[in-house]
Each structure stands twice: as C-alpha cells, then as structure tokens.
Specification:
The chain is an alpha/beta fold. Helix content is 44%, strand content 16%.
C-alpha cells in the first residue's frame, strides 16, 4: 500500500462489526476504510482473555501492515478483553507509537448519562463481554450512581448468523433472556445492546421489553464518537486518505463473507481472503 493511502481499519471477529461500520461510513463517507473480519476463528464470545487478546492483536498488526494508522475494534468482546492491553502495553513499544486503537464500549457508555432516568442499566451481550465486567467497570467510572445488570445471551449471535433472527425460535431465547434480566432488576429503563449483531434482532427484542425501556444501539454513538475524535485530533485526520473507498478482508471464505455481508449491509461486496498469524 502506497504511502499516500491510509484507510481507517475496522476489525471484528466476524460479521457484526458491519453494523458499526455502516454507521461510521454513513456519517463519515469521505474516508477510506479497510474492514477485517476474523471469521475463521469466530466467535470470540466464549474464548479466554488470552486467546481473544492474541487473535485481536494479530488482526490489529495486519491492519497496521496494510497502512491503517487508526483501528476501530468494532467488537464488544475484543474491546472488553484486548483493547486495554493493546493500548497500554503494545502500542508504546511498536515501531510507530503514534498509531491508535479505539474500542466501542467507552463511546457507548458515555452516552448513557443523558438517557437513563432511573439510573438502572441493563446490558445484553456475549458470555465473554458480560463475564468481563467491562460495561459495569466503565459505567462505574463515569456514573457511579448507576446500577448495572448484565445478561449473557449466548444464543443470540447464532440466531443472526443462521438467519433465524425472524423465526419463532428467536422468540424463545430472546424472551427467556429478557425475562430473566428484568426480573433481576425491574427498574431498568435503558437496555444496552452490547453486541454488534443485536440490531438485527431489534424487532424481536422490542416484543419482550417494557414499553418504557429505551433500546440503546451502539452504531450511531460510535460513529459520532469517531467523528468527534477526528475533530479533536487533526493530526490523525491528516494521515487518513479521503477517496470514499471500502475494502473488505476475511480469514474465512470470501464467498461466505460476501453472502453474510449482504445481510448486514444490504449490498454485495468484494472480499479478499487472507491469513493472519
């Protein structure tokens, strides 16, 4: 990649990050983007901290090698289990410590203060995201008066990726998880959808949450946060090319990725299959 072309890197363990990418591209269409999905090793949700960190850092290094000075971890599990180590330990020792890696949990949390009235927050996510306690920790830093209740929903991602998000089977699992969550804390008035696949389950989720509960989607706030970041860091913005282009890479079959991407982006994409290690 030539020295004048520096795209924003977007990484996810699979397809869900495309919901984040879609909002970023819509808000910031001029920039160039390179999306990498580690589909061959997905899902990350049930993997250990060490493995998620290892896989995520390998992907980040590949995006750096492709010329990206800025990488967004459009994955809650990677943001929860790998971001802090990469930011604090790896970047300072890298050949270019001015590169940056950003996650999606902090931007999500920052928006909650203006939304919740009861100060009781529910968080749905993968087993890895919920067990990490990342949302509870970040919320406690910014809003110590808030009560956070998490609910691991291990079946929700498979429902999406197997195109069962509109099926009757989805009702069973979504109702079961949400009934348990709201029984744990009936005062919840804001529900964070803490997985990038979950926007595709919106219609089902709305069936089983109380009418007074706000559904909080990550895509719009992450996009706004990135826009603000680039405004506050013109030195980074200056390193990014603006040709309105998008490239896609996957560690799985390009054909399978393109088929799945049409579900998330509602259009076909050309994909390059790669190996990262």
């Amino acid at each position: 990649m030539n020295g004048n072309h520096h795209p924003i890197g977007i990484f996810d363990s699979g397809y869900g990050g495309l919901t984040i990418f879609e909002h970023i591209r819509r808000l910031l269409p001029a920039y160039d983007y390179l999306y990498l999905g580690d589909n061959a090793r997905a899902p990350y949700g049930s993997r250990s901290f060490e493995i998620v960190y290892q896989f995520t850092f390998q992907a980040v290094k590949r995006l750096f090698d492709e010329g990206c000075p800025l990488v967004i971890l459009a994955c809650n599990t990677a943001s929860a289990k790998a971001l802090r180590t990469i930011q604090q330990c790896d970047l300072p020792l890298s050949t270019d410590p001015t590169r940056r890696v950003l996650g999606i949990i902090r931007p999500t949390v920052e928006m909650l203060g203006s939304i919740s009235k009861t100060r009781h927050i529910g968080v749905t996510g993968t087993t890895g995201t919920i067990s990490s306690g990342s949302y509870s920790l970040e919320i406690a830093k910014l809003y110590p008066d808030m009560t956070v209740t998490g609910e691991a929903c291990p079946m929700w991602v498979p429902l999406v990726e197997n195109r069962e998000y509109d099926g009757d089977g989805a009702d069973f699992f979504i109702r079961k998880n949400l009934e348990h969550l709201f029984a744990s804390d009936p005062e919840i008035d804001t529900l964070v959808l803490g997985c990038t696949h979950y926007p595709l389950l919106e219609a089902k989720i709305r069936k089983f949450v109380p009418e007074n509960v706000n559904l909080f989607f990550q895509g719009p706030c992450v996009a706004e946060s990135l826009k603000d970041y680039l405004f506050r860091h013109p030195e980074m913005s200056a390193r990014l090319s603006q040709n309105g282009s998008c490239r896609f890479m996957t560690t799985e079959s390009g054909e399978r990725f393109s088929e799945a991407a049409s579900l998330f982006l509602r259009c076909a994409v050309d994909v390059e299959q790669i190996i990262i290690q």
